[in-house]
Amino acid sequence: MRAREWAIAGTFGDPSEYGISEPPAVEVCPLDCGGIALSADGNEPFIAADEPMEVRR
């Protein structure tokens, strides 16, 4: 739901004007096995994928 709110508010102006917080900063960290991990603010990764693949939406 947040992604939709950010997209709509971003299209029509500054999201903070609508009381929507900034999206969190996410850092992508490559893994030794060829995978990736996502962490917020350099903290411990909160999700990882050993074999990531591209997806079309």
Overview of this structure, please?
18% of the residues lie in helices and 23% in strands. With 57 residues, the chain is of the alpha+beta class. It has a three-stranded antiparallel β-sheet with strand order 1-2-3, with no helix packed on it. It is elongated. The chain starts with a helix and ends in an 8-residue tail after the last strand. The model has no long low-confidence stretch (mean pLDDT 80).
Write a compact overview of the structure shown.
The protein is of the alpha+beta class and 57 residues long. It contains 1 helix and 3 strands.
Evaluate the radius of gyration. Answer: 15 Å
Beta-strand residue fraction:
15-25%
How widely separated are the two ends?
Answer: 17 Å
The best one-word shape is elongated
Q: Can you give the helix content as a percent range?
A: 10-25%
Number of helices: 1
Average pLDDT works out at: 80
Strand order of the biggest β-sheet: 1-2-3
- Biggest sheet, in brief? 3 strands, antiparallel
Number of strands: 3
Uncertain regions: pLDDT < 50 for 5+ in a row? none
Protein structure class:
alpha+beta
What is the chain-wise order of helices and strands?
HEEE
